[in-house]
Structure formats: structure tokens, C-alpha cells
Amino acid sequence: MTPEPPPFLLRGLPSADDSLRIYHAAELALSLRCEVARGQVLVYGIIAQGYDAAPAILVRLLGVAAGVPLVVGETLVESGSFELGPLTPGVYQIEVLLPDRLLVIADVALPHLPSPIAEAAGETA
Fold first, then answer.
1. Among 100, 93, 91, 87, which Cα is nearest to 57's?
2. Rounded to 5 degrees, what angle do the CA atoms 106, 79, 48 make?
3. Burial annotation 64-102 (CB, 10 A radius, 16+ → b, else e)
4. What is the pLDDT of residues 21-76, one digit of tens each?
């Protein structure tokens, strides 16, 4: 039995306002944007692949409960873009399952929802 290759851990660079992160691995680029919309935290992503006949890719979002990773959202990406949510604020891990490897993006922090009291007072986080 051939052992599975270890996952690639990816780190990205934030944009100037930390709203967009871009990750690269071989012929794949992944951009992530976390935002608060309609009172919910959502993750939007775009996957760009460097070859024409791109297979569908499974993207999973994992949280940690009692020290155990737990899948809290997943989607099959066929057209390049995806959305995960609604989610609670916190730190998550994103896994991108390719046919030949697993890409892992650790420590994806989702922003906290603004307080209704702070919004009413005109404050921002």
C-alpha cells in the first residue's frame, strides 16, 4: 500500500486592508475573502488552475471542537468560485482536495460580527 503524500501547508499574504488573502501552490491559486454580510460571516473564494481540463475540487472548512477537527462546511467547486457560510467568528482551517494532493490553509481567522449597540452608536470594529 502506497502511503498518501503529506498535505501541503500554505500561507498567504494579506491585502493592504487584510480583506483578501491569496495562496499559491504549483499551478493553482486560491484567493479568499471573509466578510460580514447580511449579519453573517461568509467566506468567498476563487480557485484558478493552470490547465484547461480542470477537475472539480472539494473545498472543506474545518473548525476545532474539543481538540478534534470538525467539518463545518464544504462545497464542490466546478466553476472556480465558491461561498461558505454562514459561519461563526473564529479560527478555521481550509482544505482543498486535489486529485493528487491535499492543500491545507491553517489559521484562517473569521472576523467578529459588529455589535448591534456599536452599530447603533456609529462605531466600527
1. 100
2. 50
3. eeeeeeeebbebebeeeebebbebeeeebbbbbebeebb
4. 888 877 788 899 988 877 788 899 999 887 666 678 999 999 977 778 899 999 99
* pLDDT above 50 for 121: no
Q: How far is it, in rounded angstroms, from Cα 47 to Cα 43?
A: 13
Integer Cα distance of 96 and 26 in angstroms: 13
CATH class of the structural domain 8-112: mainly beta
Q: What is the pTM of this model?
A: 0.72
**Res. 118: pLDDT tops 50:** no
Burial class of residue 48 (count of CB atoms within 10 Å of its CB; 0-12, 13-18, 19+) = middle
| Ramachandran quadrant class, 86 (left: phi over 0; alpha: psi -120 to 50; beta: rest) | beta
